[in-house]
Specification:
This protein has about 220 residues and is an alpha+beta fold. It has 6 helices and 5 strands. It is about 40% helix and about 15% strand.
């Protein structure tokens, strides 16, 4: 698995604030070990920043946008103000998922008696190519034990991968509620309506549970 040494311009990164000064803040890039970035005070917040520490503090976890990268000088310019709440939330979740997938892969490696590097070469990189991220592959395996096999993946690692996925990932479910107003002009309309609701509850959809509650006429 090839890892980038530096982030790309325009990329969102997760970092930890290590030093705050009057003219800006220095950040360690959590996803790029040994690399640091800098947020100029003009990129801390929109409008005039009177006291920089009102906006950012040491040890704070932040999501920044990469403005410029100069690898020869080991310099990365960052912006805090150009990240909205939606982008921040998505990036933090992506970062958490990536960290969790690393730990899960370590568990798989231990279970099958291989190193994480060997796991990446044997199947990890191929899973990332197929599902976009390693965490997405774990989610798919947790949701459907036959999913990876149906996609053509095979090997002794598959059973261990599925077991780790099923044991450590909970698939989220969504509750959808709605109200129906139904009218029937038939003499026995109430029976038709009742039967329609019963048919709805008895409908067979994979991983879907339907409940109907009568409120009143």
């Amino acid at each position: 698995m090839i890892k980038k040494e530096y982030p790309d311009e325009g990329e969102f990164v997760v970092g930890t604030v290590i030093k705050v000064q009057n003219f800006g803040a220095f950040i360690t890039l959590d996803e790029y070990p040994g690399k640091e970035g800098f947020i100029h005070i003009a990129e801390i917040a929109t409008g005039w920043v009177k006291r920089i520490r009102n906006h950012i503090k040491e040890k704070q976890k932040v999501v920044c946008k990469v403005l410029h990268v100069d690898q020869s000088k080991r310099h990365v310019d960052l912006s805090l103000k150009r990240v909205n709440e939606h982008q921040k939330r998505d990036k933090i979740q992506e970062w958490k998922n990536r960290n969790k997938s690393k730990k899960l892969l370590e568990m798989v490696a231990k279970k099958i008696g291989k190193t994480t590097e060997e796991c990446h070469k044997e199947f990890g990189d191929d899973l990332i190519k197929k599902y976009g991220t390693l965490y997405a592959a774990f989610e798919e395996a947790a949701y459907d034990t036959e999913a990876l096999k149906n996609e053509g993946f095979k090997g002794e690692w598959l059973k261990g991968f599925q077991e780790i996925a099923r044991s450590n990932i909970t698939i989220p479910f969504v509750n959808i509620k709605g109200y129906l107003s139904i009218t029937s002009w038939l003499p026995d309309g109430i029976s038709h309506i009742r039967n329609a609701f019963l048919d709805g509850e008895n409908s067979q959809y994979e991983d879907v549970e339907i409940k109907v509650k009568y409120i009143g006429a």
